[in-house]
Amino acid sequence: MATSPFAKSTSNPGQGTIHLTLLPPATPTYSTLNYAYPLKLLPSTPHVLPASEPRPSEDSLKPTQPIHVPLLFLLSYGGGLLPPDSLSITLTLDPLTRLTITTQGSTKIFPSPQTSPLATAAQTLHTSLGCHSGLLIAPDPTQPFDNSRYVQKQVFEIADSASLGVLDWISEGRRARGEKWGCRECRLGCEVWRVGENEQSSRTLLLRDNILLSSLEPHPLARKMDNLGLFGTLILVGPLFISLGNFFVDEFNLLPRIGGRDWGDRPATTSSTAHPTADEAGKLEEQRRVSQWRRERWREEKEDGVLWTAARVRGCIVVKFGAREVEGGRRWLGLMWKEEGTVGREFGEGGLMCVR
After folding, report:
1. Helix (H) or strand (E) holding 289
2. Helix (H) or strand (E) holding 332
3. Is the N or C terminus of the chain more exposed, i.e. has fewer CB atoms within 10 Å?
4. Please, which pLDDT band fits residue 77 given cuts at 50, 70 and 90?
5. DSSP string of 193-262?
6. Alpha-carbon distances of 108 from 73, 101, 114, 217, 351, rounded to whole Å
7. What is the mean pLDDT of residues 264-284?
């Protein structure tokens, strides 16, 4: 019998490993990138960041910006997971590196086979972020079909100076085929841990977020979702996302409240002087622009049935949102991200692909 000249694979089905390191002077490189069917990890052209920003030095670990940010597509053959498919990914970012992870479309969760109605598709991600590293996970929404089952677990261990942005959203299914939250069960879990710089340091739990969507009778899931076609969570942690997190909290505090006046109709504050300086005139013009943008966003939120909230939790910003349809939620999130600017500035245009 002929023997293969290649070493026997040690990878398990659906297993992937990603290790991003920084080569001198400031070139992010995958020291490890492997995967096994049905998982596929596809690196794309890195997105160059603004040249005016400072670049990292070779002999220090200062919180500076790299030259560009790699973009990695997380895919599965067939565009989704068929129970009992299971993906397990281990991700490590070395100090000063940044990475954007996205998808090329929604991840479909196909129905469990009739011969195995309890079969469940699963995806697990375990991530370790080094000092001053940054990770943005911004996929398209997960789309569970009728009679599907899905379990997702994400665990993030981040250094004190690391930054993490995670977008996790799920849709009602195939609306064109009349599906509306017909999945049997969907469990989404996310944990964020703060770790020290050495192995002896203790781990501190910053956030544990769990979502359970179940269609067990006599309470069908479609009834519980109250006409929402999309539900999502955005988690922001670390210095790179401070501005974006504050932006969400500030905008939430400015939302009109029941029984209160719509303060968005109030004209922008004018200068107390008859002839404002150039700086004052510029600030007034920016206030008017932002006020107009906010009123327009509120109008679109009402038309698209967008509901959302934002809160601070142990150093994290957690945003929960829902919308009548996927495109309405995508449009709202894109408006927020593009207006504030952190995602495009710190992670390049690749971070905005999911909201286009």
Report:
1. helix 278-304
2. helix 326-340
3. N
4. confident
5. EE--SSTTSPPEEEEEEEEEEE--TTS-HHHHTTT-SEEEEEEEESGGGHHHHHHHHHHHHTS--TTS--
6. 15, 17, 18, 24, 21
7. 65
